[in-house]
Amino acid sequence: MSTIDFGQIVQMVSSRPSGVAFRRFVRGRVAWSDLEAVCREVAARYDRSVARVEFLDADNWLSTPCVVGDQWFVKIISPQNALVHDVFTTGRNLGMFSSGTEGFFERFENPLAMAEHELAATRRIREIGLKAPEPIEAFRHDEFGVLVLEYLPDFRTVEDLAPSETRRFAPVFFDALARLHAAGLGHGDIRAENVLVMDGEPYFIDATSLRESRAADARAYDLACALGVLERKIGAREAVDVAMADYTIEDLLAAREFVDFINIRPDLDFDGALLRAEIEKRAA
After folding, report:
1. How far apart are CA 87 and CA 56, in angstroms?
2. Looking at 6-10, 14-18, 102-106, 149-153, which range is the least confident one?
3. Which of 169, 160, 158 is nearest to 205 (CA)?
4. Which of 8, 130, 142, 186 lies at a CB distance of 3.0 to 4.6 Å from 218, suitable for a disulfide?
5. Is the separation of the CB atoms in 236 and 278 below 8 Å?
6. 85 near 114, Cβ under 8 Å?
7. Going by DSSP bridges, is the β-strand pair 201-204/50-57 parallel, antiparallel, or unpaired?
8. Per residue in 155-189, pLDDT tens?
9. Alpha-carbon distance values, 169 to 23, 88, 109, 239, 246 (Å)
């Protein structure tokens, strides 16, 4: 039987304590024996007799993420994670409906379906020539869905970039997002932690499931989230300036309709009023 060297636990927590407590609550607690069993299974599948494991307390509400053998990034998705995703999805769709827009987020049947969707989404992103960790496999272990991706050891997130670095990165980011949209894809969860940066290029992770019938709204939502992420780093005027190299004013006006909605998300902290005003100024 494979053995696991459970190494140092890496904690990457938000600076907002309430956000940390909320994430811990919704993620729930997976028994240590279950986590160990999943990690043993991952090691065995790749012929490792010993593998170091680091569990990451990252901004991920819907799984227990870890790194196995310094080579594989693994998400362990529990039934509670799937239930929380269902609740979040219902809340998002109801919120959009109350603001006059039909919701476009899809639900998952179980933890394995969540893992399989992200694997497929990551493959599609790479197929159109954009950057994403190499997708390896998704499988079921007891009641858990398990996603295995390439581990990128040297990445940073948009949140980690200094303002000067963000200004250099922003055009590349919007170009990649526009290419994603031009290929008919949507991401559904653009935030600073879901855009990794390596060698100045964006790597997309954590794409969620979206209804194809609402593709235009989903892409407008993506753009609104991207503008919000960059508004916090470089300001509304510069964020809109950069976006206009890849998107039309009609695209920006469509994104404006989601600004107030996404501004209430606990994981997106930006000045929504300034962003809306800047978009409206360009449309005037």
Report:
1. 24
2. 14-18
3. 158
4. 186
5. yes
6. yes
7. unpaired
8. 899 989 999 999 999 999 999 999 999 998 889 88
9. 29, 31, 37, 11, 14
For residues 147 and 163, give the distance between their C-alpha atoms in angstroms, rounded to a whole number: 33
The label of the residue with tokens 């459970």 reads 6
pLDDT tens, residue by residue, 229-256:
999 999 999 999 999 999 999 999 999 9
Closest CA to 93 of 186, 209, 195: 209
Per residue in 95-141, pLDDT (tens digit) is 776 666 777 788 888 999 999 999 999 999 999 999 999 999 999 99
The distance in angstroms from the start CA to the end CA of the chain is 67
Of all helices (H) and strands (E), which one includes residue 261? helix 249-262
Strand arrangement of the beta sheet that strand 156-157 belongs to:
156-157, 195-198, 201-204
At 69-85, the pLDDT tens digits run 999 999 999 998 998 88
Cα separation, 184 vs 71, in Å, equals 31
* Residue 282: both structure tokens together: 């360009």
**For 9, which DSSP code?**
P
| Greatest Cα pair distance in the chain | 67
In total, the chain counts a number of residues equal to 284
Name residue, tokens 């962003």.
275
Q: 3-class DSSP state for residue 55?
A: strand
Alpha helices (H) along 128-214: 163-182
210 backbone dihedrals φ, ψ, rounded to 5° = -125, 150
